[in-house]
């Protein structure tokens, strides 16, 4: 009972109610919302946001922020697509290295984890504020993407790669399986491991954690690396789904991820929040996006409404903190 | 229960052993290596040659398509009556959206030879024949001959437009620009791009496919 209380805080309860009200309203206002096709459509769409939001949650739990996930997503998607399609040529050695689907994906993941590592290293070793360090990475990764793709989409990646984004397994879309696996792993990581407890402890009180002997820098570097890795997972999903790596993919995805984290009840000051809350936040954003489209709301108004929802979530979070 | 140092060592060795085997398996299934010149030779056989493709259709299919085009004055008249049905009947487009491409022909009197275009008076309308900025997909898409689904790679698909525009720049424009002057009568066939929602018929811009001067 205690653990249930701990894992299911008031913010999540509010989010659940908000989701229920949202679904009810959309079911009444539109004809197509409560259909199986639309349900899977929403689930597929939120899969990418779920992956990067889970990484963002870990970062935010340590009282950090990662603005670079959208750009890392684009770069890793482009690297995966580029290696899969064109491989690597080394003219000086008369060598061509071709990549299988597995190889290209692993390379994309390694790049994502590596860029996340750079973020974590800058934050911990050079004491660069997370906002600035990841903002710099946002720009750099976008630049790398443009350099790698030369500004053109990389398309025609083959059916076996496309299956990851468009295929179904046991009646469930592949992106949902993959994001589900990410969520379950993250839940176990945060709630059942020492590493997870360290994350909460650092976000709760960094000085006390340091005095307790928690390896703060090491944990934070791991957290940013995982966030980069999960952005890469998102990148692979987006690329597989579109059968194309777009140089401008992932723009503003970091904002959707932060929104999911905040709406899900994770405190931006760190130490408080859950992965399930973030999943709930991502679903709310996905349903909101879907509903606004089904209702033919102008894209400009959609942005305004999403912004208002995020603001509302933060205000509610603050009032919850006060009351606690 | 005290773990002996040798047991710890053994556990670590097993862990590292499994890790190395897993890495080796992933690595083995991830990449393949071959000589670069061999790969380039293979690519040469499969690479799409847009120029050759365009050369192949230029005098036959493409010329035939552009001979079968709508008179520009009739098109304007049709727009004035019903925009949607004119788009439906006459335009080609790649997918859903408001942009449509039209094959048009006409004859007019040159009223200005500008740096980037030649302005014609066609009936009561002014038509701009582009001579400098020959870009975009108007020629390809208005032809209706080239379908995006036939191409796995959008770069290949786009290279067809580049090849068509190149040929216009090299073969159609220079001889026309060198001879054309105000007062000439010019016959043209070409393509225009129009937006259904923001339709502007004031001075239509034609990307030419053929241009003929009769003084």
Automatic annotation (TrEMBL), chain A:
Q: What Gene Ontology terms describe what this protein does at the molecular function level?
A: transmembrane transporter activity
Residues making up the signal peptide according to the UniProt record: none
| Membrane-spanning residues | 12-29, 50-83, 95-118, 130-148, 168-189, 221-239, 275-294
Q: How does it sit in the membrane?
A: Multi-pass membrane protein
Tell me which domain of life the UniProt entry assigns to the organism this sequence originates from.
Bacteria
Where is the major localization of this protein?
Answer: membrane
Which is a Gene Ontology cellular component entry for this protein? plasma membrane
Q: Could you tell me what this protein is called?
A: Ribose transport system permease protein
Q: List the source organism.
A: Algoriphagus chordae
UniProtKB/TrEMBL annotation, chain B:
Entry-linked InterPro entries: TM0957-like_sf (IPR036215), UCP033535_lipo (IPR014582)
Residues annotated as transmembrane: 13-33
Query: Known Gene3D superfamilies for this protein?
Result: Envelope glycoprotein gp160, DUF2291, alpha/beta domain, Envelope glycoprotein gp160, DUF2291, helical domain
Q: What is this protein called?
A: Putative lipoprotein DUF2291
- Is Signal there in the keyword field? no
Family annotation (Pfam families)? DUF2291
For this UniProt record, the keywords arranged alphabetically read as follows: Lipoprotein, Membrane, Transmembrane, Transmembrane helix
